[in-house]
Amino acid sequence: MKSLKYRIALVLLVLLGSIYVMFTKPVTLGLDLQGGTHLVLQIDVKKAIEDEVSTALREIKNKFEKENIPLLSAKREEKKIELVLLEKSSVQKAVELVKEDYGNMFDVKVEGEKLILTLKPSYISKEIDRLAEQALETIRNRIDELGVAEPVIVRNGKDRIIVELPGIKDPERAKKVIGKVAKLEFKEVVDTAQTPDELITKLGGTIPSGETVSVVPSPSGAKFYLLKDGKKEELKVNSLEELVKKFGGHVPEDNQILVQEIKDKSERVIGYQFFILKKEPILTGAYLKDAYPSTDEYGMPAVSFELNSEGARIFKDYTSKHIGVRLAIVLDNKVQSAPVIRSAIGGRGQITGQFSYQEAKDLSIVLRAGALPAPVKIIEETTVGPSLGKESIEKGIKAGVAGLIIVMLFMVAYYKLSGAIADLALLMNVAVLWAALALLGATLTLPGIAGFILTIGMAVDANVIIFERIREELRKGRNLYSAVEAGFSRAWGTIIDANVTTLVAAIVLFQFGTGPIKGFAVTLSLGILSSMFTAVFVTKVLLDVIVKYKSRIFSI
């Protein structure tokens, strides 16, 4: 008697708690139900690792120079560095210096005066993982700044990230913000050129008489053409350094050429200005403390920034010693502006350029969130309209209600009062499952609704097994109380087997599935657990009440 009262109290507590949660905490709807954008991003790991090797090469050369280790040549080939020393006597010292700072990064092999540095497989594996985790965190920060409610941002494999943005109103803007590398650098300007001919000439190249090089903007970047005798021939070059070299010029090893885009009022690129810059940045976005949209002295949109204490110190030290020198503000390898340093600059500055207000705002977002460690590209995109999502919800609800009514009618018709008790447990199962989804912050997707409906069938399946066992015991001549006890006891093993195997399958789906598949797995898993409680525990409590107080109305 005492035990039954406690069990009834527990059932009522769970029921009332579930009803309260249902009406006070909404369930998060997935992308396919409320509309939005699904993106699969791929991280350019190869490019990032090659950049790291290039940086290592530059640092090693600087260190050798400080330690008076003369180099005959130094080159990088993808994941490998080859250093040829001028003197064989320096080999041992060179190896020790490399191993001291880069022993965890490179395997070092010596062939005479040559050092071959090869990236370690273990380092590459760790670096891929680091790049992916850093990209994941950066993208999450950017999306948080955009104000998207309940986004899904997860890794998929080694170098892919899945981003789901439910209810987003401007997917194009979101894609630009997410995919922008936002690598900010401040670099010293060595020289400038207005035309390709001027650039080539300044770097020691020669344009044949009667010929000229022109540049034409295109969606994929600048295209260069050689004009001669009224004919135009496209120059197949992959970089500005290659263009200069084609005409006999030479870009110093510590320099690089970048461009500044010139745009018209409609934001269309109509030309370029060429900058010869020091390759080594004075400062990078790593020292950025804050960034926010503002206006320049002419009232045009700009981005103001604030450096941390270390960045402010470096910036002030450099600018105080380089008054009169032009300083290029470079974003993703494009010059945004290149003002002349008029006085020492402390911890604050401004990035100007031909921005719209929205571009200035978005640039502030990506700078605050930090640069991506490697470029990312969108390899898959799916957009779901809100009307389609609304239609999916309506159809899903209709299917769920129809399934619930059919199952409940069958149970009453076939098992009479016991079937009605099972129906009450089933309704409670729906309430408990919905409350669990809301409390855990799980996202309900269209496949999740399918899992919800499947749970309804599985919940009464346990009751069917129990009721058939009870019938068997009654046919054997047992009294009602012992028949109910034996029915539940003998059905328990079968119910456990069926539900545990389904639960394992759901866990596997959740672990290895993505997006909608995970939604199905979450709903199915929670449904199995809630149906185990309602179909077995709640049904048993209700049957015990009937057997104890109203046994004469019992029917099965």
TrEMBL record:
Residues 376-544 form the Protein export membrane protein SecD/SecF C-terminal domain. The gene is secD. It is a multi-pass membrane protein. Keywords: Cell inner membrane, Cell membrane, Membrane, Protein transport, Translocation, Transmembrane, Transmembrane helix, Transport. Forms a complex with SecF. Part of the essential Sec protein translocation apparatus which comprises SecA, SecYEG and auxiliary proteins SecDF. Other proteins may also be involved. Residues 273-374 form the SecDF P1 head subdomain domain. GO terms for cellular component: plasma membrane. One of its GO terms (molecular function) is protein-transporting ATPase activity. Part of the Sec protein translocase complex. Interacts with the SecYEG preprotein conducting channel. SecDF uses the proton motive force (PMF) to complete protein translocation after the ATP-dependent function of SecA. It is found in: Cell membrane. SUPFAM superfamilies: Multidrug efflux transporter AcrB transmembrane domain. One of its GO terms (biological process) is protein targeting. It comes from Desulfurobacterium thermolithotrophum (strain DSM 11699 / BSA). Belongs to the SecD/SecF family. SecD subfamily. Pfam families: Sec_GG, SecD_1st, SecD_SecF_C, SecDF_P1_head. The chain crosses the membrane at residues 399-417, 424-443, 449-470, 491-513, 519-543. Residues 133-190 form the Protein translocase subunit SecDF P1 domain. This is Protein translocase subunit SecD.
